[in-house]
Design goal:
By secondary structure, this protein is an alpha/beta fold. It is built from eight helices and 22 strands. It has two domains: about 30-205, Galactose-binding domain-like (Jelly Rolls, Sandwich); about 220-449, Alpha-Beta Barrel (TIM Barrel), CATH 3.20.20.370. Strands 1, 3, 4, 7, 10 and 12 form a six-stranded antiparallel beta sheet that branches. The N and C termini lie far apart (about 60 Å). The structure holds zinc ion. The site of zinc ion has 5 residues, from strand 13.
Length: about 450
């Protein structure tokens, strides 16, 4: 089939979010055009890897073809997981520019899908702050051309193209005819691959435009919102919870832990002593994360503990949970975060009647009824993306991109879901916070900001 090796020179100006684009007076010539194998999905997903958690969101279909017979079709309907298709990583030359071009369309309402260039070091680890991205605008039913350029970081060894719909959004996107090219080095000077071995040349890429905005002078604070604390069946504390709270004590960072309150029923001295002991250190805020954390379906209606359920039930769950906290822990909850972050107008009414609760995590920003302080959610800035999978790199790039004018971010995680690899990513994230002196605060402290 006929596929252009290069984009035409007259690529229309687009409302593309281009991070890390380099301005060249004269467009640099490509040293190597089209590095990708199967760039137009004509051989299905050969040369591309679909992540396990993509759960059939990304498929190659004939209807998604811009030209040729096939294209990539993404249908993200769940609002919890993001799609994820990545090209096989290719070797790169640090300091050299790379141009990504592709065509995309989006018949849906959401612009929550990005096409990224990701760099990895020689250990195949993702390089923090390195991704460059173009997001596909909503309501683009016709094919549009997108292009951006970025410089391979000093420690880059590999690059890949990553097509990813964000975990919290839903929508339909189609991508075809992806072109990855290697350009001349910055300023048109080719960078010799051997030059990276010398310290002088290695410093060169640092002079290139930074791929992400710099850390603000007073960086926004972080609330580490950790969900779903329960006891073990034996009335004790699960090892993964113990690991994160030990880590917090050792590193002196503040954790904000959501308790599912029915775990406070019964006689569990070890579990209660654990929570009370942590509370007494002043490094922890325990908040109310529902009584039973249940979700179910009635006909085609999806219900959960605080969504679509009657006032009496919601009121009862608040009251018995606060009573359990007072009795077993010696304090009432002052912060609430709904299970599944799902609440409704009834919850606002119940909250308005609860004097103990002052702060809502990820509450509805338009809520005028509850009278509480709402700490909002910034979709692309989180611990986990997709759900249950911490990513330090995604957090860092989201943090820097949205930091302007913000006082805080509430970022969410589920430590009970973290195996050792996921745990390592979380530690990396905390290392970044510590290294950059980013304050970590509790919800109550964030509300005071
Ligand atoms: Zn939860």
């Amino acid at each position: 089939m006929n596929r252009p090796r290069l984009l035409p020179a007259c690529v229309p100006s687009l409302s593309v979010l281009v991070l890390a684009a380099i301005t060249h007076a004269v467009p640099p010539a490509a040293i190597e055009s089209q590095l990708l194998t199967n760039p137009g999905f004509e051989q299905g997903l050969v040369g591309w890897t679909v992540a396990e958690n993509d759960v059939l969101m990304s498929t190659v279909t004939a209807s998604a073809a811009r030209q040729g017979g096939f294209g990539l079709h993404i249908d993200d309907a769940d609002g919890k997981l993001g799609s994820s298709v990545e090209s096989t990583p290719l070797p790169v030359v640090p300091g050299r520019s790379y141009r990504l071009s592709f065509y995309a369309r989006s018949p849906g309402q959401s612009d929550g899908c990005g096409v990224y260039l990701r760099f990895r070091n020689d250990l195949q680890r993702l390089i923090p702050s390195s991704p460059a991205t173009a997001s596909i605008p909503a309501n683009t039913s016709a094919w549009k051309a997108f292009t951006f350029e970025t410089v391979a970081p000093a420690d880059a060894a590999l690059v890949s193209v990553w097509i990813h719909s964000y975990s919290t959004t839903t929508g339909i996107w189609e991508v075809d005819d992806v072109t990855l090219e290697e350009l001349d080095g910055p300023g048109g000077t080719p960078v010799a691959p051997t030059a990276v071995a010398t310290p002088v040349a290695a410093a060169k890429p640092a002079a290139a435009p930074a791929p992400l905005p710099p850390l603000p002078a007073s960086p926004p604070a972080i609330v580490l919102k950790l969900d779903d604390l329960v006891s073990t069946r034996e009335g004790d504390v699960a090892p993964r919870w113990k690991r994160i709270t030990d880590f917090a004590l050792e590193r002196k960072i503040k954790l904000s832990i959501g308790i599912i309150a029915d775990s406070l029923e019964g006689d569990k001295p070890a579990y209660f002593a654990y929570i009370k002991g942590l509370q007494n250190t002043g490094l922890f805020e325990f908040w109310f994360h529902g009584y039973d954390h249940k979700a179910w379906q009635e006909g085609d209606r999806k219900l959960s503990e605080f969504q679509g359920t009657p006032y009496e039930r919601q009121k009862d769950h608040f009251e018995k949970s606060q009573a359990l906290a007072r009795e077993k822990l010696g304090f009432a909850f002052t912060t609430f975060g709904a299970p599944f972050n799902a609440s409704d107008a009834v919850t606002s009414r119940v909250l308005s009647e609860n004097a103990d609760i002052k702060v809502l995590l990820y509450g509805n920003p338009g809520d005028k009824v509850s009278g509480k302080i709402v700490l909002d959610r910034v979709g692309p800035v989180n611990i986990e993306a997709p759900l249950f999978v911490p990513s330090a790199d995604k957090f860092i790039s989201g943090y820097l991109q949205h930091a302007k004018g913000r006082d805080y971010y509430v970022i969410q995680g589920h430590p009970a879901q973290w195996d050792d690899a996921r745990w390592t990513e979380f530690v990396k994230l905390v290392d970044y916070l510590s290294a950059n002196r980013i304050p970590v605060v509790t919800p109550t402290e964030a509300a005071a900001l």
